[in-house]
Amino acid sequence: MTFQPSNLTVTREQVAGFECHAPNSAPPAEVTWFRGSDRLESGGRVFVSPDTGTLFIREVVTGDSGLYHCVVENLAGSLTSRTAELIVTESFPAVGKAACMLH
What is the pTM for the complete model shown? Predict the structure, then answer.
């Protein structure tokens, strides 16, 4: 594989993206993404680029945290990527000294 997914930490409501694509192959390879053993399809907050195989998850929530991998497949066979972990963190507003001094 040309690109393997890497571990990623993002803040809730941001966009997460994992890359995974095979070298130029004939016939062209199809990329399928999985969260754990669940196959992911484009739709809603999830988009898999048909050109690059990159997985995008919009407006991530803590429930999107988990292990992701892709499978690249064509008539010649299939390759499974390494597993990458997505960690979604909460975002808390910073509290300045002025706010703490209010009575």
Answer: 0.82
